[in-house]
């Protein structure tokens, strides 16, 4: 009988379910209601969703960083990582290639560079290297670059000496800008270059080169140019002949002397000095012998 | 009267604040269900080119973004019976609606159906200051209305000017700017029981909600279920709720009378419960599934299992014919409608040019009710459903929600009431000071 009744009861679930559903109280508690309302407040919701995580993040990070050991560990880690990346074989520079320089200059450059290979390309300060190289007087310009394959390439433009400058301490080579490029022990080492001498000869190198060009007809006889009083030039020929050129327009004066020489072979005569300092009054000074020959003729006639 | 004016004005300010915030809740506290709608106001209404509609009475300016209904507990006859229970029910509805809208609401506009409403027709007359009628004249004429002594325990719910007359011309809807000498007005005053109102307000306050408006449920269901020409020509809206039946009479788009009968669908249910010896829940279910008021021969043969849970086989297997059920329901429905007829007769409804009667509310869904109502109330009876508003869920479009929908319309566009006009402050201090100066001038 009992089972029959319970079976009958089960056959009408709708009524009982409804009754149960009605008995349930769906009302939220006061605090639940308030909490829901609070969570629906836009400002509060934003602060919970963004403000609170941000604050937590900053707080935890701050707490972690406030510890000295943690900061040191982080720094170590970062530098270790950086080292690991920089020391990868792709970034290593293993050898040096100097082009455009002779053997002595290349050796000088290598000794000055002070770089120990292999080295990471991150550790190479290319502008500084370039400065170091261009400080050498023999170097006019240099290009420093790291080529793929780990080669440090230095392309050097050397200074070309155009003249030999006899100075107090010896013979120096200078280029067209008047910069010394090197020294030579004797004049015979560079017989192809003209010789200049005297104080301030270096500063007038451009004028000196033009004078040498103008004097090319007597090239075989030229010994050198001497700067006199740091303002004008004397062209010294072999057997002590000297052409004294003026301060202004020395080339014109030299060309006049050359023309006289070509017309009357003036310089092959026994002349000691051709004084062109005053253009209006060129003067010749004879050697004592020639002067002696000339003098009795004039004097003897009078005598 | 002064503090009523101030409190109602404060409520209007609250409504304006809610509008600016853009979200307001609608709370229909009824005897059978508590409905909460959350409205979002998006500022002035916008229309597409293809919309051939006008402003749609302002109902396009808002959208229902949350709706929730809960079984009412602790409310009887539309009045708060158990405060704690009512508060919990309100909380349930508000929380569910908030959850659906995903927005917090702080302002609520509520309506109540019971509390023994009483209508008064007042009139006042005043001389127009200057030549044309201004806002201050209207405020003065409203303040000049003779207020009857309705008792200390009653509170004014609505005070709507329904008619203005300027000299010999009557029937003006808006006399402002017109030239005349004497301005008279007719004011419809609706009072309710103050303690019952206080109880409801207390419940709402306990839910951390601010009240932004208060309306009679009969009035708002009239707004939502009467069409425009019915409101214009004269009609009555019968809102048949669970515990009370609200009556509101409209003419020329103003409510001129409101009342409520303290009977409703719950009484029909309790009759069934008593008649068939079943619990209330079962009786409610039987009423909604098989109920009716007009019996036919077919109904004698249709047997309804009424069930039971006692364990007694004979008791649990009882059946009843549908005709019997109709026989239980019909007298009670008739009684309600007779009572409504009496109230309408007392209000002089038969003198209106059109006597359309619209039945709405949850209890109006009984099949065959319109046929029976036309025998009792008059020939022009129809069943009314609330207006369609944007975003309202399908479940909340039935006649049971005409009060809630009307409250939405009320929230969007409340009718001008007495407290919307600036009543001139008492000028007695200034006047007495002037009199004193005059006295000094005269005597020295």
TrEMBL record, chain A:
Coiled coil ranges (UniProt) are none
Record the organism: Flavimaricola marinus
Q: Which residues form the POTRA domain?
A: 91-159
Q: Transmembrane stretches, by residue range?
A: 46-65
Family, per the entry?
Answer: Belongs to the FtsQ/DivIB family. FtsQ subfamily.
Set out the biological process GO terms recorded for this chain's protein: cell septum assembly; FtsZ-dependent cytokinesis
Q: Does the keyword Cell membrane apply?
A: yes
Where does the UniProt annotation locate this protein?
Answer: Cell inner membrane; Membrane
Q: How does it sit in the membrane?
A: Single-pass type II membrane protein
Q: What is this protein called?
A: Cell division protein FtsQ
Which is a Gene Ontology cellular component entry for this protein?
A: plasma membrane
Q: Which Gene3D superfamilies match?
A: Cell division protein FtsQ/DivIB
Per UniProt, the keywords (alphabetical) are: Cell cycle, Cell division, Cell inner membrane, Cell membrane, Membrane, Transmembrane, Transmembrane helix
- Protein role: Essential cell division protein.
From TrEMBL, chain B:
| SUPFAM superfamilies on file | Actin-like ATPase domain
- Give the GO cellular component terms, alphabetically: cell division site; cytoplasmic side of plasma membrane
One of its GO biological process terms is: FtsZ-dependent cytokinesis
Functionally, this protein is described as follows: Cell division protein that is involved in the assembly of the Z ring. May serve as a membrane anchor for the Z ring.
Enumerate the HAMAP family for this protein.
FtsA
Family as reported in the entry's similarity comment: Belongs to the heat shock protein 70 family. Belongs to the FtsA/MreB family.
Name the record gives this protein: Cell division protein FtsA
Name its species: Flavimaricola marinus
């Amino acid at each position: 009988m009992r089972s029959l009744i319970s079976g009958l009861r089960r056959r009408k679930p709708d009524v009982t379910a409804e009754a149960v559903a009605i008995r349930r109280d769906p009302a939220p508690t006061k605090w639940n209601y308030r909490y829901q309302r609070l969570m629906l407040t836009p400002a509060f919701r934003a602060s919970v969703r963004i403000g609170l995580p941000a604050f937590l993040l900053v707080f935890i990070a701050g707490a972690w960083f406030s510890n000295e050991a943690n900061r040191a560990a982080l720094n170590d880690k970062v530098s270790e990582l950086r080292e690991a990346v920089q020391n990868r074989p792709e970034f290593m520079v293993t050898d040096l290639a100097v082009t455009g320089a002779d053997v002595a200059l290349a050796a000088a450059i290598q000794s000055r560079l002070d770089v120990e290979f292999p080295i990471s390309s991150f550790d190479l300060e290319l502008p500084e290297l370039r400065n170091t190289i261009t400080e050498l007087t023999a170097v006019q310009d240099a290009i420093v670059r790291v080529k793929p394959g780990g080669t440090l390439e230095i392309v050097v433009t050397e200074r070309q000496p155009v003249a030999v400058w006899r100075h107090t301490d010896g013979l120096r080579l200078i280029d067209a800008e008047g910069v010394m490029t090197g020294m030579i022990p004797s004049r015979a080492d560079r017989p192809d270059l003209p010789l200049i001498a005297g104080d301030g000869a270096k500063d007038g190198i451009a004028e000196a080169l033009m004078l040498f060009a103008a004097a090319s007809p007597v090239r075989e006889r030229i010994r050198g140019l001497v700067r006199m009083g740091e303002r004008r030039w004397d062209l010294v020929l072999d057997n002590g002949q000297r052409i004294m050129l003026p301060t202004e327009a020395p080339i014109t004066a030299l060309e006049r002397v050359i023309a006289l020489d070509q017309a009357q072979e003036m310089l092959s005569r026994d002349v000691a000095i051709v004084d062109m300092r005053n253009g209006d009054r060129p003067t010749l000074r004879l050697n004592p012998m020639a002067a002696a020959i000339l003098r009795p003729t004039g004097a003897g006639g009078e005598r | 009267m002064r503090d009523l004016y101030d409190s109602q004005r404060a409520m209007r300010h609250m409504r304006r604040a809610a509008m600016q915030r853009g979200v307001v809740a609608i709370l229909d506290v009824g005897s059978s269900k508590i409905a909460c709608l959350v409205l979002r106001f998006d500022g002035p209404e916008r229309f597409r080119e293809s919309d051939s509609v006008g402003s749609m009475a302002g109902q396009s300016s808002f959208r229902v973004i949350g709706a929730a209904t809960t079984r009412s507990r602790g409310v009887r006859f539309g009045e708060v019976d158990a405060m704690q229970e009512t508060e919990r029910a309100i909380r349930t509805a508000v929380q569910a609606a908030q959850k659906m809208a995903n927005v917090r609401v702080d302002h609520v506009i509520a309506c109540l159906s019971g509390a023994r409403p009483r209508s008064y027709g007042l009139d006042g007359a005043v001389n127009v200051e200057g030549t044309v009628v201004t806002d201050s004249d209207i405020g003065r004429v409203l303040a000049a209305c003779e207020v009857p002594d309705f008792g200390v325990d009653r509170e004014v719910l609505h005070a709507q000017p329904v008619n203005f007359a300027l000299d010999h011309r009557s029937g003006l809807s808006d006399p402002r700017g017109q030239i005349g000498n004497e301005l008279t007005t007719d004011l419809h005053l609706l009072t309710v029981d103050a303690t019952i109102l206080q109880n409801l307000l207390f419940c709402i306050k306990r839910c951390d909600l601010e009240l932004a408006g208060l309306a009679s449920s009969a009035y708002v269901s009239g707004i939502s279920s009467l069409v425009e020409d019915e409101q214009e020509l004269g009609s009555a809206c019968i809102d048949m709720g669970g515990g009370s039946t609200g009556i509101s009479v409209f003419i020329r788009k103003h409510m001129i009378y409101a009342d409520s009968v303290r009977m409703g669908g719950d009484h029909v249910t309790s009759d069934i419960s008593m008649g068939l010896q079943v619990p209330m829940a079962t009786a409610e279910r039987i009423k909604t599934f098989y109920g009716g008021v007009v019996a036919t021969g077919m109904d004698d043969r249709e047997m309804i299992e009424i069930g039971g849970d006692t364990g007694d086989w004979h008791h649990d297997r009882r059946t009843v014919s549908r005709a019997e059920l109709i026989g239980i329901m019909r007298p009670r429905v008739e009684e309600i409608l007779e009572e409504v007829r009496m109230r309408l007769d007392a209000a002089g409804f038969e003198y209106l040019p059109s006597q359309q009667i619209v039945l709405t509310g949850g209890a109006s869904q009984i099949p065959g009710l319109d046929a029976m109502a036309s025998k009792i109330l008059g020939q022009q009876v129809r069943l009314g459903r609330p207006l369609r508003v944007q975003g309202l869920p399908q479940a909340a479009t039935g006649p049971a929600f005409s009060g809630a929908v009307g409250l939405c319309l009320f929230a969007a566009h409340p009718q001008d009431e007495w407290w919307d006009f600036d009543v001139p402050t008492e000028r007695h201090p200034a006047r007495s000071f002037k009199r004193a100066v005059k006295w000094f001038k005269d005597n020295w």
